[in-house]
Amino acid sequence: MPPSPSLLSRSLSRWHNTPLYLRILAALALGLVVGIVFGKSAGSLGLPSQLILRLLSALAPPLILIAVIQALMKAEIKGRTAGKLAFLLILNTTVAITIGLAVANVVRPGAWHKLPPPPATSEAATVQALAKPKPVLEQFLDNVPKSVLGPLGDQANVIGVIFIAVAFGLALRRNKDRPLRTITDLVDLAFDTLLTVLHWIIDLVPIGVFGIVASIVGTKGFAPFYALGGFIFAVLLALLLQASYYLLRIRFGSWVRPMDLLRGARDAMTMAFSTSSSTATMPLTFQCLRRVGLREESASMGALVGSNFNNDGTALYEAMSALFVAQMLGMNLDLGQQFTVVITSIIASVGAAGIPEAGLVTMTLVFTAVKLPIDYIPLLLTVDWFLDRSRTVINMMGDMNVSCLLDGKTRGVEESTISAEPPRPGEIRGAAE
Ligand code: ASP
Hints:
433 residues; mainly alpha; Proton glutamate symport protein; 73% helix; globular; binds aspartic acid
């Protein structure tokens, strides 16, 4: 007998109210069991994760576009400080990516387990594939848009247009009476609508994790997870090195004592780890910096303005992921390609909003730039819930680092730093959960 609607809706809302990381862990465990029990026949369960990836990559370009436009429109910076801020942001991100690439080249976690190349997409293979009738699910996947604007220019893809119309129509319903008075209102609406759609896709991630884990365990066993363990180790090591770089820079480039900063910013670091959102943490970061004794201007430059552009942990992670997958596929990225990874990771990290899983969305751009198959990004879904939290702490520490360096070598004398007010919640856009 089908469950009564109230039971179904109660279970759905319970599922929805459970934190995402717990849902992903549950999906991971279930995927393991199903993969072990069903073996090779669990192979086709990987399809939902491809669907999620397709949706995430369709959303990436407009999200980056709007996030960067919004950050530039709202940033209030003055001449010299703007130059100093831009220099610090570019320097920190470049150091982060260099550390990431160096660790990935030394530890080589991807070499711990080799993967077969993805299915060929040559003309012959395409003709062969067309001759065979496709399973219904695959036909469905073919109609999911690869980009948000793509189907609008493609007369053949009416289903893709309907997909986009339904998603954005539903997302806009909740804002249909929102007044638009200025261009900023319009950009904010576009950003909020994209975030609404993004959260729906992120809600599907546990299903993708279940499918990809079941399909990998069923067809390839546990060996790929061994390499993923190596990847987690390498990323954590690189993030730790980046944190040490920040603290050293603070020690020698500002009046702030690193230990005092760590003590004063404990709350913000815990919040960044537990929410996976540097944007949601912004007000607390600002408040902690003021408590440590930074001038209001430097605290707000780094923690509020810089934070929109500054995602060093994300940049480091994206570069390492590209190298990891290349290593698993036995592809050697030469120096030129690694340079392309650096440039695209910088752009992708600037465009990544400070919300959970944003790095995963923009990662497709880095992969595409060096012609790496994005088919293997779903593998990273299984560990991203944890690595996202860790890189968010580094993103937030990057903001603190910039604030301290802007504050300079002499402590400012302001009347009361302890009672510093954080910005009003309404001023912080893009906080995810
Ligand atoms: N969650 C990260 C942040 O909020 C962004 C990312 O996914 O890398 O900073």
